[in-house]
Write a structure and sequence with these properties.
By secondary structure, this protein is of the alpha/beta class. Helix content is 21%, strand content 22%. The chain has one domain: Alpha/Beta hydrolase fold, catalytic domain (Rossmann fold). The chain is globular, with a radius of gyration of 18 Å.
């Protein structure tokens, strides 16, 4: 089928996956298939009481731009990155040329244009493929997503070590460096002024670190899925937009821990609370999470005011969540 026009009215980017006759996938995304109840919150305080609640003191203003009005085909590549002796093979989902489609095509040509970049960090004992359904939707909306496999916290790691989360913010920044470096096969299609970070569980802790103890000032926005803080370190640096997604029944990283970190953000912020959600987004929750996060990125990275206006409706998809909106 031909590339379809995105509906910029009520349906919004939530219809991105409806580019074929098949329904949107209802799969566990984000997922941490074998995370234990005690393994993830090893670095972040489970109450984040040291951060304390903050009022929104600095509003985030996205860089001006024009968001795509078409859905893209999806490309996928695995790039052999590393930082010293730390192997960081990185799965990249990106807007590809050709007719819009729901499934990624390996090594498809990059679509013409320059696109925002999102660095995505997986959870403990997980891997980028566990989040493919959501990351592909972001790529279909016109975003390059780089998802490294971390050496000591991923599924299949030779020496699983949850304390290695402390090294992952530096890994994440290095992957961003490498994606932007001349000679990278996708570098020419990335807009270095439109970068965000996202992550689930241990990857959410990693993402929090990129806005606090290991601040990467290139980041315009952050998405933390079922995560908590990074060693109780306050958020710092230039204002960024932050979206938190957390299940109220999460027994791995408690909802209280996630909400406390949301409350400590001094910039534009929002929180999508999944009423019956646990540590994994699945089933009926998938569409609300994916649609809300996609429109959040379209606003934060492209300056799409219509996408921002759709967020409350996105969050209400399926009646599975509540939404605190301080963007």
């Amino acid at each position: 089928m031909r590339r379809r026009t995105l509906l910029l009215g009520l349906a919004g980017v939530g219809s991105l996956a409806a580019c074929s006759a098949d329904p949107a996938p209802q799969v566990p995304v984000p997922a941490a298939p074998s995370a234990s109840a005690s393994a993830v919150p090893i670095l972040g305080s489970t109450t984040a009481s040291s951060l304390g609640p903050q009022s929104v003191t600095t509003a985030y203003v996205p860089p001006p731009g024009t968001a795509p009005v078409t859905a893209y085909a999806i490309g996928r590549r695995v790039l052999p990155f590393s930082r010293g002796d730390r192997a960081l093979p990185t799965t990249v989902f990106y807007p590809a040329s050709g007719a819009a489609a729901q499934n990624p095509v390996d090594e498809a040509p990059l679509a013409s244009g320059r696109f925002p970049l999102v660095l995505f960090s997986h959870g403990l004992t997980s891997q980028p493929a566990d989040y493919a359904a959501m990351l592909a939707r972001w790529a279909q909306a016109g975003i390059v997503v780089a998802a490294p496999t971390y050496p000591n916290t991923s599924n299949g790691a030779q020496h699983l070590d949850s304390s290695d989360i402390i090294n992952q913010p530096a890994d994440a920044s290095h992957v961003i460096d490498t994606m932007l470096a001349p000679g990278d096969p996708l570098a020419g299609g990335i807009d270095g002024n439109r970068i965000a970070a996202a992550g689930h569980s241990a990857g959410g802790i990693t993402t929090a670190g990129l806005f606090s103890a290991r601040r990467d000032e290139r980041l315009k926005a952050g998405l933390i899925f079922n995560g908590t803080d990074f060693q109780g370190t306050p958020f710092t640096g230039p204002a960024a937009a932050m979206l938190f997604v957390h299940g109220r029944k999460d027994e791995t990283v408690t909802y209280r821990a996630g909400h406390a970190v949301f409350s400590a953000v001094p910039w534009s912020r929002a929180m999508l609370s999944i009423t019956d959600g646990g540590h994994v987004t699945q089933g009926d929750d998938f569409e609300a999470v994916t649609t809300t996060s996609t429109d959040f990125l379209r606003w934060a990275l492209y300056g799409d005011a219509a996408a921002k206006a759709r967020l409350p409706q996105d969050a209400a998809t399926g009646g599975v969540a509540t939404f605190e909106n301080q963007l």
